[in-house]
Write a structure and sequence with these properties.
Layout: H1 13-33, H2 39-46, H3 50-56, H4 60-83, H5 88-115, H6 122-144, H7 154-170, H8 179-186
Helix pairs in contact: 1-2, 1-4, 1-5, 2-3, 4-5, 4-6, 5-6, 5-7, 7-8
């Protein structure tokens, strides 16, 4: 049987733990220092040897994309779980607020990945599409419940989330955290704005 048709063996428990530690350390390192952080530093932060990092991720770009893929998959899973909530309005607004609250890290990674000229794999593109789908389903449910203006579409929502993301990243107001997000999200609600 050719190697390409052989299913990948599942990782041992210690290898899964190491991979998770590497991804977590890489996410923090890339968010703080960008793509310039050496893989050896990520290994140190993860508490593993450099060889362990290279076994899981042969290049820094592969590790970087794995971090982005991991984040997209987790967000799509969270959005999917939120779809089953009893209150679609609460689920929608909680998801959007959480997305923007954590997005300074995600946005930095996505910007750096795009700026580094790293091509996105089919898996990353599929995870991005899954997130857009789940987010769209949350929007549709919230609109059906009368909690979001009917004239808002996914493109509008995407633009508003990016605006909130950018505003929160550049506005350092410790007395009123999330204020810009709240103002932007207020434009989604039905009624006079």
């Amino acid at each position: 049987m050719p190697a390409e048709n052989t299913p990948a063996r599942p990782l041992r428990a210690d290898a899964r733990r190491n991979r998770a530690a590497i991804l977590s350390a890489a996410q923090d390192a890339f968010a703080a220092e960008g793509l310039a952080v050496p893989l050896d530093e990520i290994a140190r932060r993860a508490g593993v040897g450099a060889g362990t990092v290279y076994r899981h991720f042969p290049t820094k770009e592969a590790l970087f994309e794995a971090v982005v893929l991991d984040q997209l998959e987790r967000l799509a899973e969270q959005a999917g779980a939120a779809r089953g909530a009893a209150d679609p309005a609460e689920a929608f607004y909680a998801f959007v607020t959480g997305l923007v609250a954590d997005a300074h890290v995600k946005k930095d990674l996505a910007d750096a990945l795009a700026g580094a000229g790293v091509p996105l794999s089919a898996g990353t593109m599929a995870a991005s599409a899954a997130l857009r789908h789940e987010f769209g389903e949350l929007l549709t449910a919230a609109q059906a419940a009368g909690a979001v203006r009917a004239d808002i579409d996914q493109a509008d929502l995407h633009a508003l989330v990016l605006a909130a993301l950018t505003a929160e990243r550049h506005r350092d107001d410790r007395r009123r955290p999330g204020r810009i997000t709240a103002l932007i999200l207020g434009t989604l609600r039905p009624g006079p704005n």
